Amino acid sequence: MRIEKVAFGYDKKKLILRDLDYTFKRGRITAILGPNGCGKSTLLGLCSRLFNPACGTICLDGKNIAQYKARDFAKYVASVYQISEMSPDLSVLGLVTFGRTPHRKPFHHLSEADDAAIKYSIEKACLKGFENRRICELSGGERQRACLALALAQEPRVLLLDEPTTFLDVYFQIEIMEIVTGVNHEKGVTIVMALHDLNQAIKYADDIIVMKDGQIAAAGDAKTTLTPELIKAVFDVNAEVIKAENGDSFYAVYR
Does the reported pTM lie above 0.85? Predict the structure, then answer.
């Protein structure tokens, strides 16, 4: 997915994203970092066609995403947002089954391929045994996994995640990140996710984009691009690199 000279503003007189140029690499995990209001979620909204650019283009496999039919685009790209509207009485199985809509002919029964994709998505999202549970009966972490299973059932080539660990405790944060990386490794799905946690980005992402004031401040390898100097410039906080015994690095951030 290639973003070229993209700008966007909810008010046409005031742009909140400007001069964005970036290519999300096939089969890799990219984390988008930046302070609140920098444009992370808006960028994902543009990539998912939730918004249209004021100028510039976003292309998937060389074709402008605006030119895809909705059903075809849904076969390529799936999204999970911070807050998703779901019918509270819908079962987990019913929700995940909706993910097969782009692949099914109207009024046709589920195919073997549909059944296999639904089964994989439920099991991958650690929801086996929850199929008949209603959405209103799920915890916050379980609902997030159900939304992820819905997206996985689309069998997308690109998965967009808007702060997938927000509102979750540490256990469920790790669980969600492990599910996402597992799908990337098993299926080769390109993952693009907006994150707040710098250490999650370093641990799980291959590449990072750091945004500030609606522009890309830095981009590159997740293990080397993020530095204490960059964190200070973008977030206005101090950071110290700490080395773990296994050789991994992580940041302690403080005022």
Answer: yes
